[in-house]
C-alpha cells in the first residue's frame, strides 16, 4: 500500500498520517461564553445563518490527545501519537439543520495539523499548556469540587488565550456548543495562483464509538488577546456561560461532502 498522504513513497512509511480510521483518547477543558452574534455570523460559511437560540454562544476548548491509526503502532512511539490543541467552536444553521463549526484551531504537532486539513479544520501551529489532574501527591488538582486548572495557548511567541476553571460538581454534559455535526470548508488554491481553487467543498463529519467520562462543571475565567496574526480576540467574551472538564474517546473513519463549490 502506498502513502495515504505526502511524502509519496512506495512503502507509505514516510506519510505524515496513516490511513483512517483514527482513534483518539484525551481530556478536555472547555469554557463556554457569549460574544457579539455578528462576530459569529462573520465566521459562518456562505449560505449559513445564526441559530435562533443563543446565537452568540462560543466554546473554547483545550484538549490533550493521544491518537493512533488502526494498527496502534503510534502507542509505542508516543512522539507520533501525543499532541495538544485548542479550538473555538461556534454554531450555525445551514440547510435547515444546526451545525457546530470550528473557525480557529491551534495544534502543536505537524501530523495533527495536516490531519486536520484533510478533515476541514483550519489548524495552525501553537504552544499549548493545560493543568493535569493528579491521583497521588499534591502537585495538581484532583477531580473533585474545588479542583483548579489553568490553560493557555500562544502562537508565534504571543499569548492568544488563557483560561482557568474551578470544578464545582459532576454533570451530565460538557456543554452545548460543540454538540452538533461539524460543518467545515475544505479549500485549496490552484497552483496557478489566479484566484481559482483546486478544491472547494463544504463537508461534515462525526466520530463513532464515542465515550465520555469524569464530566465536571466548573466556574471559569477567560481572556483573549489580540496579536498580529490571530483574530480569536474578535470573539470578545461578554459573559461566561460556564466551564467544564471531561475525558473523551472517539474514533473517526471519514466524512461527507455536502456541497462542491
General description of the model:
The two termini are 31 Å apart. The radius of gyration is 19 Å and the shape is globular. The protein is mainly beta and 261 residues long. The chain has a single domain (22-260), classed as Acetoacetate decarboxylase-like, CATH 2.40.400. The chain contains two helices and 13 strands.
Q: What's this model, at a glance?
A:
The protein is mainly beta and 261 residues long. The protein has helices at residues 37-41, 110-119, and strands at 22-34, 57-68, 82-94, 97-107, 123-125, 127-130, 148-155, 158-170, 182-189, 197-205, 208-224, 239-252, 255-260.
Low-confidence stretches: none
Mean pLDDT: 97
User: Tell me, what is the CATH class?
Assistant: Mainly Beta
- SSE string, helices as H and strands as E: EHEEEHEEEEEEEEE
Counting structural domains, the number is 1
Helix content: under 10%
The Rg value, from CA coordinates, equals: 19 Å
Label the overall shape. globular
- At CATH level 3, the topology is Acetoacetate decarboxylase-like
Strand order of the largest sheet: 5-4-3-2-1-12-11-8-7-6
**CATH-scheme architecture:** Beta Barrel
Strand content: over 45%
Largest sheet: 10 strands, mixed
Helix/strand class: mainly beta
Amino acid at each position: 500500500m502506498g502513502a495515504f498522504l505526502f511524502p509519496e513513497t512506495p512503502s507509505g512509511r514516510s506519510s505524515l498520517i496513516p490511513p483512517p480510521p483514527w482513534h483518539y483518547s484525551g481530556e478536555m477543558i472547555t469554557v463556554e461564553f457569549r460574544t457579539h452574534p455578528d462576530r459569529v455570523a462573520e465566521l459562518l460559511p456562505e449560505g449559513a445563518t445564526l441559530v435562533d437560540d443563543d446565537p452568540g454562544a462560543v466554546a473554547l476548548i483545550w484538549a490533550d490527545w493521544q491518537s493512533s491509526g488502526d494498527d496502534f503502532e503510534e502507542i509505542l512511539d508516543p512522539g507520533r501519537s501525543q499532541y495538544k490543541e485548542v479550538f473555538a467552536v461556534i454554531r450555525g444553521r445551514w440547510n435547515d439543520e444546526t451545525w457546530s463549526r470550528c473557525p480557529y484551531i491551534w495544534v502543536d504537532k505537524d501530523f495533527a495539523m495536516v490531519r486536520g486539513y484533510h478533515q476541514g479544520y483550519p489548524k495552525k501551529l501553537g504552544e499549548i499548556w493545560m493543568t493535569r489532574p493528579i491521583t497521588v501527591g499534591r502537585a495538581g488538582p484532583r477531580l473533585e469540587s474545588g479542583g483548579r486548572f489553568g490553560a493557555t495557548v500562544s502562537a508565534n511567541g504571543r499569548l492568544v488565550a488563557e483560561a482557568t476553571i474551578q470544578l464545582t460538581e459532576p454533570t451530565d454534559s460538557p456543554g452545548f456548543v460543540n454538540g452538533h455535526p461539524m460543518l467545515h470548508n475544505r479549500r485549496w488554491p490552484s497552483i496557478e495562483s489566479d484566484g481559482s481553487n483546486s478544491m472547494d467543498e463544504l463537508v461534515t463529519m462525526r466520530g463513532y464509538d464515542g465515550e465520555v467520562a469524569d464530566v465536571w462543571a466548573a466556574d471559569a475565567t477567560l481572556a483573549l488577546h489580540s496579536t498580529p496574526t490571530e483574530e480569536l480576540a474578535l470573539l470578545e467574551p461578554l459573559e461566561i456561560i460556564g466551564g467544564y472538564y471531561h475525558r473523551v474517546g472517539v474514533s473517526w473513519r471519514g466524512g461527507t461532502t455536502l456541497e462542491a463549490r
